[in-house]
């Protein structure tokens, strides 16, 4: 089955530093990947849609200069949280879907990254 | 704008009971509906996916139904076990405005008591 690998699973960083999170589709090609943020006891909030070879599409209210997304290949998307602040502490999850058969195949999610900014 | 509601928000049952989780959505223009399981601090595991043309899907002790016209889906768990304790999320893939985006409910937190 489709597998999405997300790294790191957790990270602690100091305020003002940048953190990069990787999302890889291991056994399928994904022209589109998605980045979500989840606050405690809340559901997933879509942050942006990552498109291979083009700019990401950000949801309203998400700062694109703060959350940099790069989708350089069909199997890798990265999210970089720049100049991190404590309020950026959250659980970040990526997902991907197969390039073909959109309706037939569901979304596969990574295992998530717990970011703590101190 | 699609809205997904899950009821109840939390549920506690003794081991062995059968249970039903409910999901409703406001816009019936969907490609499919997916049920996920999320353990604390973990990502999402897909349980069942129902295409818009289907009525139900089954996997082991799990059965999911879809009534697209009324905007409802249920997840039935038979003979619940403590290992079933997790948060269950329902998500719909829109085919109208906001196509190809998943809209999630807030989830139902299930606790199965040994």
How much of the polypeptide of chain B forms β-strand, as a percent range? over 45%
Continuous helix count of chain B: 0
- Largest interface between protein chains, with number of residues from each side: A-B, 23 and 23 residues
The class by helix and strand makeup of chain A works out as mainly beta
Taking pLDDT < 50 over at least 5 consecutive residues as the criterion, the unreliable ranges of chain B are: none
Specify the oligomeric state: heterodimer
**SSE string of chain A, helices as H and strands as E:** EEEEEEEEEEE
Taken as a percent bin, the fraction of beta residues of chain A is over 45%
Q: From the alpha carbons, calculate the radius of gyration of chain B and give it in angstroms.
A: 14 Å
Outline of chain A, from the CA principal axes? globular
Distance between the termini of chain A: 38 Å
What is the 3D form of chain B? globular
Mean pLDDT over the full residue set of chain A: 89
Helix residue percentage of chain B = under 10%
- Strands of chain B, count: 11
Decide which structural class fits the backbone of chain B.
mainly beta
Percent of residues in helices of chain A: under 10%
* Unreliable residue runs of chain A: none
In words, what does this structure look like?
The complex is a heterodimer of chains A (118) and B (114). In chain A, 0% of the residues lie in helices and 50% in strands. Chain A has strands at 4-7, 10-13, 19-25, 32-38, 44-51, 57-58, 67-73, 76-81, 90-96, 108-109, 113-117. In chain A, the strands form two sheets. In chain A, strands 2, 4, 5, 6, 9, 10 and 11 form a seven-stranded mixed β-sheet that branches. The radius of gyration of chain A is 14 Å and the shape is globular. The N and C termini of chain A lie far apart (38 Å). The mean pLDDT of chain B is 93. In chain B, a hairpin with a 4-residue loop joins strand 7 and strand 8. The interface between A and B is medium-sized, with 23 and 23 residues.
């Amino acid at each position: 089955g489709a597998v999405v690998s997300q790294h790191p699973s957790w990270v602690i960083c100091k305020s003002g530093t940048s953190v990069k999170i990787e999302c890889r589709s291991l056994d399928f090609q994904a022209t589109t990947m998605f980045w979500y943020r989840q606050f405690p006891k809340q559901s997933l909030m879509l942050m942006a849609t990552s498109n291979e070879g083009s700019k990401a599409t950000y949801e309203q209210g998400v700062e694109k200069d703060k959350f940099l997304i790069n989708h350089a290949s069909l199997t890798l998307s990265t999210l970089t949280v720049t100049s991190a602040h404590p309020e950026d502490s959250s659980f970040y999850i990526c997902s991907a879907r197969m390039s073909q058969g959109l309706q037939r195949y569901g979304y596969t999610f990574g295992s998530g990254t717990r970011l703590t900014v101190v | 704008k699609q809205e997904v509601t899950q009821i109840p928000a939390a549920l506690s049952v003794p081991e062995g009971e059968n249970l039903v989780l409910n999901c409703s959505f406001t816009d019936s223009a969907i490609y499919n509906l997916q049920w996920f399981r999320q353990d604390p601090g973990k990502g999402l595991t897909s349980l069942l996916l129902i295409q818009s043309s289907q009525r139900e899907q089954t996997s082991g002790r799990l059965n999911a139904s879809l009534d697209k016209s009324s905007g409802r889906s249920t997840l039935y768990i038979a003979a619940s076990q403590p290992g079933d304790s997790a948060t269950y999320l329902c998500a719909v893939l829109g085919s109208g405005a906001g196509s190809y985006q998943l809209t999630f409910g807030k989830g139902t937190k299930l606790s199965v008591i040994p």
